[in-house]
């Protein structure tokens, strides 16, 4: 990297209205998807703040991935399947698990049995 590159980058970010700062003493970052969790211990985290939002850069030396035993579905997806198939939210959740999160497939399974 060229000398003074970080300073130049900060100037460029300032011109674009972005403020960049390191987040201190981060112990853990967990990224959750519908099927897994990614656990990053003691990462280096930088926040770039704009007017309306923030961008977080996470640098990990190592991380652990865990598959979730039961996938997590959005409440609105569960309610949509329940409504469309005219079943309880519990039955809709079970159908979503069997359909691996595919809404259309879950509704089809419930309405064609």
From TrEMBL:
Does the keyword RNA-binding belong to this entry?
yes
User: What this chain does, per the record?
Assistant: Contacts the emerging nascent chain on the ribosome.
Q: Which GO terms describe its molecular function?
A: RNA binding
UniProt keyword list: Protein transport, RNA-binding, Transport
* Assembly and oligomerization: Homodimer. Interacts with the ribosome. Binds ribosomal RNA.
Answer whether the UniProt record assigns the keyword RNA-binding to this protein: yes
From what organism does this protein derive? Nitrosotalea devaniterrae
Q: What is the lineage of its organism?
A: Archaea, Nitrososphaerota, Nitrososphaeria, Nitrosotaleales, Nitrosotaleaceae
**Source organism, top-level taxon:** Archaea
For the NAC-A/B domain, which residue ranges apply? 3-71
Family annotation (InterPro entries): NAC-like_UBA, NAC_A/B_dom_sf, NAC_arc, Nas_poly-pep-assoc_cplx_dom
Q: What is this protein called?
A: Nascent polypeptide-associated complex protein
Q: Give the record's GO biological process terms.
A: protein transport
Q: Which NCBIfam families match?
A: archaeal-type nascent polypeptide-associated complex protein
Q: Which PROSITE patterns match?
A: NAC_AB (PS51151)
CDD domains, sorted: NAC_NACA (cd22054), UBA_AeNAC (cd14359)
**Which family does the UniProt entry place this protein in?**
Belongs to the NAC-alpha family.
């Amino acid at each position: 990297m060229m000398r003074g590159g970080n300073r130049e980058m900060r100037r460029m970010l300032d011109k674009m209205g972005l403020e960049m700062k390191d987040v201190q003493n981060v112990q853990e970052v967990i990224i959750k998807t519908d099927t897994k969790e990614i656990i990053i211990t003691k990462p280096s985290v930088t926040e770039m703040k704009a007017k309306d939002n923030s961008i977080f850069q996470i640098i990990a030396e190592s991380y652990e991935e865990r598959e979730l035993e039961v996938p997590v579905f959005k409440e609105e997806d569960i309610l949509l399947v329940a409504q469309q198939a005219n079943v309880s939210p519990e039955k809709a959740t079970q159908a979503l698990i069997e359909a691996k999160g595919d809404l259309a497939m879950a509704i089809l399974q419930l309405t064609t049995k």
